[in-house]
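Researcher: Batch entry, complex prediction.
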Amino acid sequence: MTLDHTDSRLLNALQDGVPIGPSPFAEVGRLLDLSQDEVIDRLSRLKAAGIVTRFGPFYDAAAMGGAFCLCAMEVPQDRFDAVAAQVNAHPEVAHNYERGHRLNMWFVLATETEERIGTARARIEAETGIAVLAFPKLKEFFIGFRVAA
Amino acid sequence: MSLDPADRAIVAETQAGLPLVAEPYAAVAARVGLTEAEVIARMREMCRRGVIRRVAAAPNHYRLGLTANGMTVWDVDDAAAADLGARVGALDFVSHCYLRPRARPLWPYNLFAMVHGVSPDEVEAKRGEIAGLLGDACRASDTLYSKRILKKTGLRLAGGR
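Model: Structure tokens for the complex:
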């Protein structure tokens, strides 16, 4: 699917956020001079094509009561895949990336409480014999990120 | 911050997205056993408290051509880090921006900014923009490109999995 000019305008507008009210698609349509039905049809097509993954509330996971921590390990190359399997086996590991650095394995721990972050780290260190460095966020900045469509 | 059972029902019902219908909050209300007005009032309140950041479309960067990404990391003077971090986070090509603790000697960096672009060259050019913005307050920096996704699961409501 290729985006026409109207799709691009719609996608750019929808990334900025829509006020919570009874008829959000009619509201967006008013801004862009589109009918409510056209907004819904176009958004449905963008979603079906995988260009929009979802439309809805962006929840702050930490504000909902969970705990999160970015962690990194320096894993010897000859053990990398075995250690990746050990780390990934923990349900607390939400995502895990191999990155190009001496600290070559970066993952996020997601747990219900802060204490469980420490427990998961300690278990991974005990199983692998490799230190798990923790990089908890100290401050998060407002994000201006928008994908120009 | 606590969510009561009705809030949690709304979160569970909407975290994968709203239905694309004329009155999506009425549709959510019908599924969770509240009125439309209650759902709207509760979601506005969650917005006010920062539980909801915004109601918006999440684009797929890859499908829109942003296939290159680098985790740029910077050793920024602590006294200036909060101000400069706010300016870096506001850039339209930065998708995540955090201050985190250093882990010297291996890791001298305290500012993390995820940069997206259509190519590695574009990521490098944007990294140059950040370097210019940080100026003398930055002592060292690096960019970590992802080589492989080892695991990826969605973050879900705690207790909801």
